[in-house]
Amino acid sequence: MKRLIAVLGLACLTLLTACNTVQGAGKDIEKGGEKIQGAAEDAKK
């Protein structure tokens, strides 16, 4: 039983870490997209 709890705990930590990583990557991609969009709008002028 202790082993099962330890494995589930590690799985939860791994999932939480992965979510933070994906969220951070999403924010970076969003910022990059905003810069590209701004550059495209500047090129239209």
UniProtKB/TrEMBL annotation:
Residues 1-24 form the signal peptide. It comes from the Bacteria. Keywords: Cell membrane, Lipoprotein, Membrane, Palmitate, Signal. PROSITE patterns: PROKAR_LIPOPROTEIN. The keyword Membrane applies. Belongs to the EcnA/EcnB lipoprotein family. This is Entericidin. It comes from Chitiniphilus shinanonensis.
